[in-house]
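Issue 218. Parser rejects a valid record. Input:
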Amino acid sequence: GTLQALRGECPDDLQQDIFEQGWTHTVWMRIEEYQRVSLKTIAEAVLLCSPNYLNKTSLPLCVSGELESQSLAFSKQTTLWASPANAGAMELAN
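Output the parser choked on:
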């Protein structure tokens, strides 16, 4: 549902703590790879509220086998084209 709909389902006395504290909003997807990203986001938020991590702003979490932890490369030399009509594409390509 929409964030507004979720807020409407939340008890009034909890709304400020849940919706107005600057928490990262996590979208839950049906695709397994995206679920791992969502779980990492949720786990990081919970850990950052625990006493051991209160002085941190982020944590280097990883899930075994996730794409982020794998070394990815093209199997042969590849040319990357960056359109001048795509703002920021050249900067990202470099």
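Fixed in the parser; the record now loads. The helical segments are 3-9, 12-19, 32-48, 89-93.
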